[in-house]
Amino acid sequence: MIELKSVLEAILFASQKPLNVGDLKSLLASAAEQGEQPEVRAFKKIKADEIAAALDTLRQEHEAAGRSFRLVCVAEAWQFAAQPEFAPWLRVLAGERARPAKLSQPALETLTIIAYRQPITRAEIEQIRGVSVDGVMQTLVERGLVETVGRAEVVGRPMTYGTTKAFLEYFGLGNLDDLPGGDELRRIPVERPPSLLTAEPGLATVPPDQLTLPPSVESDGSESKSGETTAAAVDMATEATDAGAGTPDSKADPAN
Asked: How far apart (Å, rounded) are the C-alpha atoms in residues 220 and 242?
């Protein structure tokens, strides 16, 4: 009987693009419907968690073997990639390719805040950083690293922002749970505008002339500490970028 992990290994080795668990599950089901061999049909109703467990086992086996390539998960999709130390030779083989411009320090700081505090409004980002982020936000949105994810349930209903799949790929992360620890950054207090007032729960917002907004709250003086914490989180994000240097598809761009 062929093992599930061996089937997955063959699929990922031959694939021209990364595949997530859903892709693999669909592929196994389609093969079972088209095939007549018992070992092929055995994977028709395989569960997603079984595939995930097999992939993790396969990843550990490749790491323990100390081969020149590894199995990695980036943006929740699996692929084989060459180890970073072999980049000088693979770069000659594949040729130089244009790399996207590096993020500036302000952009990296802002992106770090969004990653750890999402969904978050632009005003909340500016409270933590202490400066305007209009230009930086435009750059991050244009680069596809940040996108609007909804609106905050406060007066004015400002847009909220979150990171994208491209963000995970840029930093070589499987998902947001792989972000370096940022508990201190998450604990920085941020003043939110008052919530939308309604006449009664579930009913429409009361007319403007009947609104009574609470008095503004004075700053608690935590701005200086937020800058230090943001810098620490940026360092963590930079380390994550360096660690993911060898994660792209080894067959497409092994030196990246």
From this structure: 36
Residue 24, pLDDT above cutoff 60: yes
DSSP one-letter code for 174: S
Residue 66, phi-psi category: left (phi > 0), alpha (psi -120 to 50), beta (remainder):
left
C-alpha of 129 from chain center = 21
Q: Is the Cβ–Cβ distance between 79 and 200 less than 8 Å?
A: no
Cβ contacts of residue 58 below 8 Å, gap of 6+? 5, 8, 9, 71
The DSSP call for residue 20 is: E
Whether pTM > 0.85 for this model: the answer is no
Residues 6+ apart with CB under 8 A from 161: 114, 118, 119, 120, 121, 122, 125, 137, 146, 147, 148, 149
- Which CATH number among 3.30.300.70, 3.40.1110.10, 1.10.10.10, 1.10.10.60 corresponds to the domain 105-243? 1.10.10.10
Give yes or no for a contact between 212 and 195, defined as CB atoms under 8 angstroms apart: no
Higher pLDDT, 23 or 99: 23
What is the structure's pLDDT at 77? 95
